[in-house]
Amino acid sequence: MTSGELRRVRANVVLQTNYLHAVPRQGAGICTVCYGAIDPQYTRCFKCKSTDSAARGNVADLVVPITYRIDGQHAHDLRWYKKTDVSGTEAHRRRLAALFWYFRDHHIACVKAAAGLSSFSHVCFVPSTKTPEHTHPLQELLAPAVSTLCRIDLAVNTDVDSESREFHKDWFKLDRIPEGRRPEADVALIDDTWVTGSRAQSAAYRLKRAGARTVVVLVLARQLDSAYAHTKRILGPIRDSTYDLDDCAVHDQRRRTG
Ligand SMILES: [Zn+2]
Ligand SMILES: [Zn+2]
User: Fold this and answer.
1) Which domain of life is it from (predicted)?
2) What's the gap in Å between 232 CA and the centre of ligand 1?
3) Which ligand is nearest to the CA of 256?
4) 114 CA to middle of ligand 2, Å?
5) CATH code of the domain covering residue 21
6) Nearest-ligand number for the alpha carbon of 24
7) What is the pLDDT of residues 26-65, one digit of tens each?
8) Angle made by CA atoms 240, 10, 16, in degrees to the nearest 5
9) Which helix (H) or strand (E) holds 62?
10) 117 alpha carbon to ligand 2 midpoint, in Å?
């Protein structure tokens, strides 16, 4: 990216801080895996716990949401960027791409430190289960940002209900992980929104079973359901604080590792 492009990306993200909420953070009442709201007496949400047990531990090593999705313009962008049959989607796409590029340039070192990696070798986009015959719009949008990594393409098992909110061991298919520059496969698995994590974790399971050493899920947004009782408790502070460009969900782990 040229310095002019970098400036444009930053300016775009700065404008988004007018409505983006706090950077996802862990703490009491927040799931240590997926950043969803939970009863404060637990550390993981029911979904993350049951998925981990169904997958016998073959789940993502780390989940890093770049933002929260609650409502407003950001939720609107995440909903509309995928539509190809309406006009005006370009601005939605540009904003989401800027968020990812900015995160990649300023915080990917934090993600690597948190995952104990010196680098990623592979990248994989969670495929669309509704239209598996098409490349996912997120992949079209963000592939240039991760073009140095060896890409893994998962196939979709269409026998599984495309709208399922459950983890499925056989949702995605992969013969083998393509050979990268080194023997270990440390995969950045990218998705747009984490709701229950069932699709991303089913994809992580397939990658792990195919031999991936590490799978880190990067999601543009962790969706929060404001109607859920435990979400209501954490929502106030999240809504009240603004997005900090110099911070990320795992930023403190970078500081700890120096
Ligand atoms: Zn969770
Ligand atoms: Zn960071």
Assistant:
1) Bacteria
2) 16
3) 2
4) 10
5) 3.40.50
6) 2
7) 999 999 999 999 999 999 999 999 999 999 999 999 999 9
8) 35
9) strand 62-69
10) 15
DSSP letters for 143-167: GGGGTTSEEE-PEE-TTS-TT--S-
**Residue 66 is part of which domain span?**
3-257
Q: Give the chain's domain count.
A: 1
pLDDT in tens, 5-35: 999 999 999 999 999 999 999 999 999 999 9
Instruction: Please give the distance, rounded to the nearest whole angstrom, from the Cα atom of residue 6 to the centre of ligand 2.
Output: 17
Following DSSP, what letter does each residue of 83-112 receive, concatenated?
Answer: -SSSTTHHHHHHHHHHHHHHHHHHHHHHHH
What's the gap in Å between 101 CA and the centre of ligand 2? 13
Distance 144 CA to ligand 1 centre (A): 30
- Taking the CA of 167 as reference, the closest ligand is 1
Task: Confirm if 200 and 194 have CB atoms less than 8 A apart.
Answer: yes
Positive or negative: CA dihedral 76, 65, 94, 162 = negative
Instruction: Enter the tokens of residue 51.
Output: 């998925």
Distance CA(188)–CA(184), nearest Å, equals: 13
Q: How far is the CA of 106 from the centre of ligand 2 (A)?
A: 7
Answer for the pair 208, 215: CB distance below 8 angstroms, yes or no.
yes
* Cα angle 253, 40, 78; round to 5: 65
- Indicate the helix (H) or strand (E) that contains 247: none
Structure tokens at 197: 């994590």
CA of 25 to the centre of ligand 2 (A): 11
Give distance in angstroms: CA of 58 to centre of ligand 1. Answer: 15
Q: How far is CA 177 from CA 45, 135, 151, 183, 215, in A?
A: 30, 19, 9, 10, 13
